[in-house]
Amino acid sequence: MADGQVNLSGIPAYETFVRLVTQNIGVMPEIKLDENGTAHRIQIFDGPDAIPRVLFSKRALARYKCCKDVLGYVLGKKSPESLCNMACLLLGKDLLLNNRFAGAALIAHAFTKLRSKYTCDSEVFDYMLAGVREDNQAATINFFHPLAHEIGHLERAQALAPAPIHSDKFLDTYRINYDAIWPIVGDLDYQACQKDEQSPLYLPLLREEVISDWFAVNAVMYLVCHRTRDRKFEMTEAFASLVMFPLIAAFEETCLKEWRSTRFTQQVLLATQCRFSILIDSMRATGKKLFPNHHADVDESMRDMNTLYDEALRIIWQGAVQFMSLSGDLMKLTDFEVAEYIRKETHKEQWFDLHSYLAAILDDSKGYPIFESNRAALRKAFDTMITFEALVIMDNGVVIIPKKGGS
Ligand SMILES: [Zn+2]
Known about the structure:
The chain has 407 residues and is mainly alpha-helical. It folds into three domains: 12-57, no CATH class; 78-118 and 333-400, no CATH class; 121-331, no CATH class. The protein contains 18 helices and five strands. The structure holds zinc ion. The site of zinc ion has 4 residues, from α11.
């Protein structure tokens, strides 16, 4: 199939989604599935009747699903250390594919704590899309929530937001949420950050994100409540899934990008908390509208979401602080030191799995800026980890053991 030509029409949830978006903002953007781009993008064209386009990145969507699974796992274990290890895998991949050998050290570190099998992005995407076609609720939310959020960035969607978000009342959000997270992250001059264009707390930026969240949560709740085939709406599951959206953004911002400072992490988490506080209000209001006879259930679910959120924020904070220190050290290593680090830190028994993982990343590099010469050099370096006298790994993954004394 040609680039970006995955056909979404005919999928009932997509038809409902198109109707919903058109009714609310007067236009359905053209959705182009972007095969190799690593982030979603919006394109706006000149002219009164021009239709905006959303380049919906398969890679970004796969990363979103992956981060969501990681956070779910980490929250289940209540372990900031797990978060740090998972971040090593994810940032390590990104570094490698951006010509940075230090990524291998991060991944090797993760392998001293866990075993993991690499799944390439296109497989993750196909799996998600298959779930959407089968009208699976979790898959429907995972697929449409990021898409609805992107559409929420369009001017027409922004204009729909409730008046208090557009007014000065929004400023109270900062103060209230700062008081809420101060015990976790400590002192921060958030008022200065509101005017700093580089900060996630920059007023116009945060307001826009909050409105996109608001738009997305309303759209997706409507969508999953109006699914076909008489499927049941699983309320608690849906709320728990929707509430993850800003947390995933926080995880990506704090752990999957390089050289984050503690101060920047504080800002990200306050922005996350602000987004959450408005998101949960929207979920409560929309939930009560959609289920007029179940107000008490909705309120109870929201209390659970608050508890989940408090815990998640604490774990992300602690995990991110650990990760900043660890990754800062590993990223300073020279190529030679990286090789030494891998040799010393990882046990021989881990090499086989580690090798498969690293090789799979190189195979999944389409669209990333890795140089061909680097790919070849990396492959060679990784292969030396497992090429013992008696064991040879062929290109197709076959393991052969040469005959004793044979040539
Ligand atoms: Zn956004």
